[in-house]
Write a structure and sequence with these properties.
Order of helices and strands: HHHHEEHHHHHHHHHHH
Strand order of the largest sheet: 1-2
CATH topology: Farnesyl Diphosphate Synthase
Shape: globular
CATH architecture: Orthogonal Bundle
Strand content: under 5%
Number of domains: 1
Oligomer: single chain
Number of strands: 2
Distance between the termini: 14 Å
Structural class: mainly alpha
Bound molecules: geranylgeranyl diphosphate
CATH class: Mainly Alpha
């Protein structure tokens, strides 16, 4: 195991044990949706967003376990987006995190409810996190709803992903790809880092450098994802590959080819790491995670 996969493994053991406690099963027929929510969250995600949130907060002396409620709320919201993205009306996928997608394991109506349930629960869980001061909680709730929503957030990004068409003009197309990816993938990664800074009550200039770091790794993450779609090993990636090509998705890889996209991803990671120079704390893990994002095989 590389150093970062070992670090992530240790983090995930602790964080997953916490997440397990977040899904008390109700009595009666409504138990089904909570069982399916649990399935969608506890099925082997890499937990990059929770890790980033906890690491960024720890730069300002917030212990991991104090960040866990905010990190859990983010992972719930991220998991909802994957469940809905896999639905037949969207990406129509059978495999997620190496296991049957939620609508395959349960059924389509349940998967829609799972997404609705996780999205709602993410905000409910954060709003009730008593270990976070009320004004910080409110700031996080505002940031999270902005990152996830239809006005420049993830829902807007997914809409572009489904409906944007190439204009044929490379300057315009590059702008559309950048916007699409920043919203669809980048906003939650940015939230992860910014939420860590907010939890740690970081000075604004340091928060700014963490946001700049997150935007660079967000773009690199998406490029790495597109390259995995083309060249990854399906068993390891855990989802159906070559979908971007067959669905004519609007990606950097489709536009510039794998090699140029790889070069761009490397440059972005270097730029992200340069942002960390402005932070005085222990940033080793943020360096490692930035490098891992483009080296990962899943
Ligand atoms: C349904 C509103 C709505 C949005 C969906 C998440 C998403 C937006 C689309 C998924 C398609 C996709 C492959 C996006 C690329 C980036 C991404 C979010 C990848 C999955 O994140 P990982 O690799 O997943 O961190 P794990 O499973 O490790 O948590």
């Amino acid at each position: 195991m590389s150093e970062i996969t070992e670090i992530l493994h240790t983090f995930n053991k602790q964080f997953n044990a916490y997440l397990e406690t977040c899904f008390p099963l109700p009595e009666g027929a409504e138990k089904r949706v909570v069982e399916a929510m649990h399935y969608a969250v506890m099925n082997g995600g890499k937990r990059l967003r929770p890790f980033l949130l906890c690491e960024c907060a720890s730069l300002f002396n917030v212990p991991y376990d104090v960040s866990f409620p905010a990190a859990a709320s983010l992972e719930m919201l991220h998991s909802y987006s994957l469940v809905h993205d896999d639905l037949p009306a969207m990406d129509n996928d059978d495999l997620r995190r190496g296991k049957p997608t939620c609508h395959k394991q349960f059924d389509e109506a349940t998967a829609i409810l799972v997404g609705d349930g996780l999205l709602t629960y993410a905000f409910d869980f954060l709003a009730k996190a008593q270990n976070i001061r009320p004004e910080i909680r409110l700031a996080l709730l505002q940031l999270l709803s902005d990152a996830a929503g239809a006005f420049g957030g993830m829902v807007a990004g997914q809409t572009l992903d489904l409906y944007a068409t190439p204009s044929g003009n490379s300057v315009d197309d590059e702008k559309i790809i950048a916007r699409l990816e920043e919203m669809k993938t980048g906003r939650l990664l940015r939230y992860a880092c910014e939420a860590g800074a907010v939890l740690g009550q970081a000075p604004l200039d340091l928060r700014y450098h963490l946001v700049a770091y997150s935007r660079k790794i967000g773009q690199a993450f998406q490029i790495a994802d597109d390259i995995l779609d083309r060249k990854g090993n399906q068993e390891i990636v855990g989802k159906t590959l070559h979908k971007d090509e067959s669905q004519h998705k609007f990606t950097y890889v489709a536009y510039y080819g794998v090699e140029s996209a790889q070069m761009l991803a490397h440059k972005l990671v270097q730029e992200a790491e340069a942002e960390l120079d402005f932070l005085a704390g222990k940033t080793e893990n943020l360096h490692l995670i930035a490098q891992y994002i483009i080296k990962r095989n899943r």
